[in-house]
């Protein structure tokens, strides 16, 4: 039995229906895509280039419950009974304390939690505290875990592996980085060679967890901006970078202070190329609210010119103001200079 051929009118009607359907389908998709593009652009425009976080070290006297530390005794106690060092506020309170300063990102210091490295129940509770306070963890500053630039391969491997658990904690808390030290014994070239090996090894583990390994200018060779940027160039890994600190450019210290200090503005320029965070170190302020040792506006201009966008951490270490007053003064100064950029 032969099927009847569609009339010209029927064919025209079907084609019209199909055209309307296709127009509606692709039109909706195009509108949805444009809407999504607008939303992304709006979000990017509403997010400032620089936001302010709070480094936990700004409150180290508050947590340790002392005005000054015997660092030799501190290091011994850290190995033997770290919880005995905590004679002040409970570090579990830090998220809420930070929120009270009006910041939404915090930078932890592992020495306040040295006995908690394997205690995931503790970190689960800590994360709940962060969520309740409306703050996130940006990074964890890691110290006293061994030298990544150690000349002894066994010691270096132990140092690398000691950082693994903190990488894991950072991942669990939603942080982007852990801050480490490129330290070791020997000449500048020797330590650089060994640090490249240690950082590369730790960087691979960090990459497997989606965590950055960032090095602060933190004394010794690392406070030489040219040296540290050279190490970064040799490591050449996307997730291994720097945490430039405004004030940590003393290469060698003596009984009466710094004996050899690197130019902080030159160092800042050299380190910002690899920066995944910035630490705004402060000690003392003048009557106008400016830090007397560091030109914050000049530093933030260097950060801006480098193309960096992200968090700048308050790290107050002064003695003339209380920790509370120093944090507020540093935050006010950062807000002022960021507004001027």
Summarize the structure.
The protein has 341 residues and is an alpha/beta fold. The protein has helices at 8-46, 60-64, 71-80, 94-99, 120-133, 153-162, 164-173, 188-209, 225-235, 264-272, 296-305, 323-340, and strands spanning 50-55, 105-109, 136-141, 177-180, 212-216, 240-243, 250-254, 257-261, 278-282, 310-316. The chain has 12 helices and 10 strands.
Give an overview of the whole structure.
- The chain has 341 residues and is of the alpha/beta class.
- It has two domains: 1-47; 49-340, TIM Barrel.
- Helix content is 48%, strand content 15%.
- The protein has twelve helices and ten strands.
- The chain has helices at 8-46, 60-64, 71-80, 94-99, 120-133, 153-162, 164-173, 188-209, 225-235, 264-272, 296-305, 323-340; strands at residues 50-55, 105-109, 136-141, 177-180, 212-216, 240-243, 250-254, 257-261, 278-282, 310-316.
- The protein has an eight-stranded parallel beta sheet with strand order 6-5-4-3-2-1-10-9. Strands 7-8 form a two-stranded antiparallel sheet.
- Helix 8 crosses helix 9 (225-235).
- The longest helix is centred in the N-terminal third of the chain and has 39 residues, at 8-46.
- The chain is globular.
- The protein starts with 7 loop residues before the first helix and ends with a helix.
- 39% of the residues are buried.
- Residues 40-44 have low confidence and may be disordered.
């Amino acid at each position: 039995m032969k099927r009847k051929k569609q009339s010209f009118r029927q064919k025209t009607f079907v084609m019209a229906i199909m055209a309307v359907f296709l127009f509606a389908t692709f039109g909706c998709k195009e509108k949805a895509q444009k809407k999504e593009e607008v939303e992304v652009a709006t979000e990017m425009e509403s997010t400032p280039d620089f936001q302010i976080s709070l480094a936990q070290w700004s409150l180290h006297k508050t947590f340790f419950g002392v005005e000054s530390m015997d660092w030799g005794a501190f290091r011994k106690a850290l190995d033997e009974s770290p919880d005995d060092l905590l004679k002040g506020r409970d570090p579990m309170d830090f998220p809420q304390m930070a929120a009270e300063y009006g910041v939404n990102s915090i930078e932890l210091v592992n020495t306040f939690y040295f006995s908690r490295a394997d205690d995931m129940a503790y970190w689960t509770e800590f994360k709940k505290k962060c969520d309740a306070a409306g703050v996130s963890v940006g990074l964890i500053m890691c110290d006293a875990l061994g030298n990544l630039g150690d000349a002894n391969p066994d010691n270096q491997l132990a140092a690398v592996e000691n950082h693994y658990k903190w990488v894991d904690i950072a991942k669990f808390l939603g942080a982007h980085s852990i801050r480490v030290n490129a330290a070791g014994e020997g000449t500048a070239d020797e330590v650089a060679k060994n640090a490249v090996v240690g950082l590369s090894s730790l960087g691979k583990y960090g990459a497997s967890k989606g965590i950055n390994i960032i090095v602060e200018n933190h004394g010794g060779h690392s406070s030489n901006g040219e040296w540290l940027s050279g190490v970064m160039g040799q490591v050449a890994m996307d997730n291994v970078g720097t945490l430039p600190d405004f004030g940590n450019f003393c290469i060698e210290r003596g009984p009466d202070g710094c004996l050899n200090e690197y130019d902080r503005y030159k160092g800042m320029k050299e380190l910002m190329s690899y920066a995944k965070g910035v630490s705004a170190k402060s000690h003392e302020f003048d009557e106008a609210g400016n830090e007397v040792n560091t030109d914050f506006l000049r530093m933030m201009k260097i950060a801006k010119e480098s193309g960096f966008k992200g968090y700048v951490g308050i790290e107050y270490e002064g003695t003339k103001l209380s920790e509370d007053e120093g944090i507020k003064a540093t935050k006010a100064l950062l807000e002022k200079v960021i507004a001027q950029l």
